Amino acid sequence: MKVLQKRIPAEAEEYAVLHLHAQDAATDRLVRYLEQEYFRAVRLLCRKGDQTVPVDCENVCCIETEGEVLRVRTMDDVLTLPERLYQVQRLLPQSFVQAARGVLVNLDRIECFEPLPNGLIRARLANQEYVYISRKYARELRERLKEGTL
């Protein structure tokens, strides 16, 4: 199936038009998938002790590399994820940006930014923890904030 995409202004409502030969159960599932915006909801299968726990990415404040494991910090918990950071980054929505070499932060969970004299940015997360955004990634973050592409 050929897919065409067209960018629209941020204030415009998003919509999809499907040109189909026939309507069937598969196309009905596709319509529900689009209408419910399931494509925006990403769940990470994290570990907490011996249990596997699904975590909706909108509940994640940040993800940090710690040795061979990722630490997934939510509002009230820290879980592990046995994946590589670059693999997880591809799955996450646009609200997740690289803050430092081994850190992804969810911009929707940042309460405030504080520029520091050394060029770093200190960000307070909704779980009251802090993340430091390195100079390298701070530049990209500032540009995205100015453009309104977050």
UniProtKB/TrEMBL annotation:
Pfam families the UniProt entry points to: LytTR (PF04397)
InterPro entries: LytR-like, LytTR_DNA-bd_dom
Domain HTH LytTR-type: 44-147
Superkingdom to which the source organism belongs: Bacteria
Gene Ontology molecular function: DNA binding; phosphorelay response regulator activity
Protein name: HTH LytTR-type domain-containing protein
UniProt organism field: Butyricicoccus pullicaecorum
